[in-house]
Design goal:
Layout: E1 7-10, H1 20-33, H2 40-43, H3 51-59, H4 66-74, H5 87-96, E2 100-104, H6 113-119, H7 121-124, E3 127-129, H8 142-151, E4 158-162, H9 165-173, E5 177-181, H10 188-193, E6 198-200, H11 203-208, H12 217-220
Parallel strand pairs: 1-2, 1-4, 2-3, 4-5, 5-6
Helix pairs in contact: 1-4
Length: 221
């Protein structure tokens, strides 16, 4: 039986916290160390995919050790992780309207520590679905489907907020609408072409426009 409460599944990297370019640089350095000269312009559009899918897209195969190398290069950036302006406002606006807040990321739980602290996720009582709980990463729908299944959510009363086409593809495969934000570096055109029901500059704009946004329909539905 589905929970009667509506829910919003929030991607984290690039949507709520400003980390996509940190990930791009960390991957560039990891690939450079492995002797691969891959321009950042090719890496950045793939951020948001799971590392296995990213490496397969770049090289036609997964490269053992590169994911760990990326993690090593990302480590110094952890102390610089910051939430986007308006992220807390949006999470609170959603919760105030009786909508369940779910943070849903393909990242492993251990890799989300700083982002979750920055968002005050524990204090807010936000639910968390992370990469350790699923077999396949975005753009596979596993993250969002697991959230629906584990939390007993009604797909008709659940939406996603994300920043990449991979979020949109995963949401669509799970039967969910997705609102896009531009803070991950994906263009408005690409998000709209990928099926976003609305696109906002950032979560601050979405929070300010909440009552006129698609998310408000979850309360009315």
């Amino acid at each position: 039986m589905s929970d009667s409460a509506p829910a919003v599944l929030f991607d984290i990297d690039g949507t709520l916290v400003d980390t996509n370019y940190f990930h791009t640089l960390a991957w560039w350095r990891a690939l450079r160390d492995a002797g691969e000269n891959v321009p950042m312009a090719e890496i950045h559009p793939l951020i948001g995919m799971g590392s296995d899918k990213m490496l397969d897209r770049l090289f036609g195969e997964e490269r053992p050790g590169l994911s760990d190398a990326h993690s090593g290069h990302f480590e110094p950036f952890r102390r610089e992780i910051r939430a986007f302006a308006g992220a807390a406002d949006l999470l609170d606006a959603v919760a105030r309207r009786g909508i369940r807040v779910v943070l849903a990321s393909s990242s492993k739980q251990a890799d989300l520590k700083e982002a979750l602290e920055e968002l005050g996720a524990e204090e807010r009582g936000s639910d968390l679905i992370h990469g350790d709980l699923v077999d396949a990463s975005k753009p596979a729908p596993d993250i969002f489907q697991t959230a629906l299944d584990e939390l007993g959510l009604d797909p008709a009363r659940t939406m996603v907020v994300g920043d990449t086409r991979w979020d949109l593809e995963a949401a669509s495969s799970a039967g969910l609408d997705c609102v896009g934000v531009l803070t991950g570096g994906t263009t408005r055109h690409d998000l709209e072409e990928s099926g976003a029901v609305a696109v906002y500059a950032d979560v601050a704009e979405l929070a300010a426009d909440f009552d006129d946004s698609p998310l408000a329909r979850l309360v009315d539905g």
